[in-house]
Design goal:
seven-stranded antiparallel beta sheet, 4 helices, globular, outer membrane lipoprotein receptor (LolB), chain A, alpha+beta, 21% helix
Length: 247
């Protein structure tokens, strides 16, 4: 009897020690699984975006993002990884970049990588997720999840806010909105315009909208979209996508 009691107590303590996931975390987990799941962890992805070639790798404990393009300075290659940012021009490392320039280049590379890998990055340790309930948009039902970031590990733009409309049936991210504070700040709303699946990973292109007032709260973006009060700013299209699994 004593052994059974000890065993029961051990099971209770073991269950108590397990982290109980919030509703938002459960929904994001299902969304990541729907978009590619475990494939993300070993995938190195190449694509072209606005005449720049990107190569993106992101595992649970390491990341490496590169971009290559040609401009008036020559052939430029940027690398952002766990160790920091490095730029080469015509194969020669540039060691005269200011901290301001390093920050700007790093944010630019990281932004493209972040959106290309969605929703995988939503489980980064610094991401804080909250569930805002269900909503209907364009006649479809969605879970609405808000994501903010801790200052520690959240990068220079940790105070950005994101909303994700995640399908209640398929768990695809069909819409998103976000506010940002760098480069003058603003708010954007994105709608999926087309989808391509490569080696089991779902990649999405977007129509990118903005409101008239850049200080609009991100929570107001659905209402403005439904009323037709957003301006189409640009299209976000990934081209020539290739996926290589590293292990």
């Amino acid at each position: 009897m004593r052994h059974k009691l000890l065993g029961l107590l051990g099971l209770i303590f073991s269950l108590a020690a397990c982290e109980v996931k919030t509703e938002a975390e459960k929904i994001v987990d299902k969304s990541i699984a729907a978009h590619g799941g475990e494939r993300y962890k070993s995938a190195r992805i190449d694509f072209d975006f606005r005449d720049i070639h990107y190569q993106i790798f992101k595992s649970p404990d390491r990341f490496e993002y590169t971009r290559e393009f040609t401009d008036s300075l020559g052939q430029v290659k940027d690398l952002l990884n766990n160790e920091g940012f490095t730029r080469w021009i015509d194969g020669v490392e540039v060691d005269t970049l200011s901290e301001e320039r390093i920050g700007a280049f790093s944010r630019s590379v990281n932004s493209v990588a972040y959106f290309a890998f969605l929703p995988y990055g939503l489980n980064d340790p610094s991401a804080m997720k909250s569930y805002l309930g269900e909503t209907t948009l364009n006649g479809e039902n969605y879970h609405l999840v808000k994501v903010t970031f801790q200052q520690d590990g959240g990068g220079e733009d940790f105070d950005d806010e994101f909303l994700y409309w995640i399908g209640t049936e398929d768990f695809y991210v069909d819409f998103m909105a976000y506010s940002y504070h760098t480069d003058g700040g603003g708010v954007r709303f994105r709608e999926v315009s087309s989808v391509v699946t490569v080696d089991g990973i779902r990649f999405q292109n977007y129509l990118n909208f903005k409101p008239e007032d850049k200080n609009t709260p991100v929570e107001k973006m659905q209402e403005l979209y439904e009323k037709g009060n957003l301006e189409l700013l640009s299209e976000i299209n990934l081209e020539n996508i290739q996926v290589e699994f590293l292990n």
